[in-house]
Every structure is written in structure tokens, then in C-alpha cells.
Amino acid sequence: MNTNSETGAKLSVNVGKVERIVSIIGGSLLIYQAFKKGETKFQLPAALGGLYLFARGATGHDAIYSLTGKHKLPDTVKNINIITKVTVNRPRMEVYNFWRKLSNLPLFMQHLDKVEVLDDKRSHWTAKIPAHLGTFEWDAEIVKEIEGELLGWNSLPGATIHNAGKVEFRDIDGYGTELHVVITYRAPFGDVGEGLASLLNPMVKKMIIKDIKGFKRYIEAGDIATIE
Predict the structure, then answer these.
(1) Is residue 87 part of a domain?
(2) Which among 46, 126, 142, 152 could bridge 34 via Cys, Cβ 3.0 to 4.6 Å?
(3) What average pLDDT does the structure give for the chain?
(4) Number of Cβ within a 10 Å radius of residue 205
């Protein structure tokens, strides 16, 4: 009886909700990668890693956390850096003013559910988790601004997804605008290792770049005039 009680204590939930969701997603992707058709060899490390992550998410228990006695392991995952640019056939100030109103961003960024403007600098962001598993939320602050030319932001302490970025607005041919976009973030699965990050990062980069390209389609379609 005592042994079972001790075992039950060891298997208590020690993984947060967000980490559990990400572990399930990451584990599923690794398992898929290991068994994917067309692979010449069965990928045992990916399969084992995927099973571990899936179990971690399903049970809410991390054996490594228990063994080390640490609340959180060191985060060794490198930041994800997205650098892209897009040219739109709209005047620079019109483009800047649209982007500066942060609540407009979910109109063309499909991975965002809502951006609530709290004051002139701070905002609250809600992003969708794939497969309708929920949302991530965080607060951000505009840290650098040159009207009509530059907009830079950074997530505030305690954010689930630590991120920063900037957008530069440049005139093209006297009418169009070229946007230079740099986004850096660290997803909330740093503790599960660089292997998972390297698998997910290309997907995330592709999604965000697609959203930036979506801005060109959205603003050139003329919908900007009806938003207000």
C-alpha cells in the first residue's frame, strides 16, 4: 500500500496545460515522422521521442522533472527567426496606419484569433493552436516606433510565447510600399529538446510567411477602406 501511494505521488501531474498540449502535438508529429511512408528506414529515435512526448502530454507527468526535482529544465531551443518582405500597391502611410491598429492583424493573419488593444503601447494577443486544441495568450508592448517608417514590439514577461518583431515601411516607385518583416519567437516547448523544435519550426515559418503574404492580398483588394 505504501509503495503504491508513493508511486502515485511520483506520477502526479507536474506538467502545465500548455506544455501538455504541445507535447501531444509534437509527439504525434514525431511518431508520424518515424512511420511515414517512403522512408527507407524506420526512425527509432523519432518513434521513442514521440511516444515519450505523447505520454508526457496525456498523463501530465514528466519523469525527468521528477528525477531532477526542477520545476523547469533549461531551455536549449534556439529562437525561430522569420525574415521576409512583401511589396503592396498602397501608399506607405495608409499601410502603416492599417498595421499600427493591431486589432486589424487577425483580419489577414489566420493563426491569430484576436488582438485586443489595451492602451497606446500594450496589447493582448490570442493565437490559435492547430487542430482546434485551444489557444495561446500573451501580452505585448510596442518598444520602438517611427511613425510611417518602423514598428517594433516585444512580448511582456510571463508570456506563454516569448516573441519580438519589427516591420519597416519603405516607399516604392512613389506609390507602393515595401514591408520588411522580422519576427523572432521562442515557442513553449523549449524543454522537450531541439529535435522537436527542428521538426516544427519549418511549419511555423511557412504559416507566418503565408500570413504576411495574405496581407498583400487583403490590403490590395480594397477591403481596408471598409474596416472603420
Answers:
(1) yes
(2) 46
(3) 75
(4) 16
By C-alpha distance, which of 181, 210, 187 is closest to 111?
210
Asked if residues 63 and 52 have their Cβ atoms less than 8 Å apart, the reply is no
**CATH number of 171's domain:** 3.30.530.20
The CA-CA-CA angle for residues 71, 184, 27, to 5°, reads: 50
Residue 211 lies in a domain: yes
pTM reported for the whole predicted model = 0.61
| E-assigned strand segments in the chain | 80-88, 112-117, 122-129, 134-146, 150-155, 162-172, 176-186
Number of structural domains the chain divides into: 2
One-letter identity of residue 51: L
Say whether both 101 and 62 belong to one domain: no
Residues 59-87 have pLDDT tens digits of 777 766 665 554 444 444 456 788 889 99
HSE-CB of 82 using CA atoms within 13 angstroms:
23
For residue range 157-188, list pLDDT tens digits in order.
877 677 888 999 999 877 799 999 998 877 55
Coil, strand or helix at 4? helix
Cell numbers that stand for 147 in this block: 511613425
In the chain, how long is the greatest CA-to-CA distance?
80
- Single-letter residue type at 69: G
Q: Which of 181, 191, 29, 195 is nearest to 95 (CA)?
A: 181
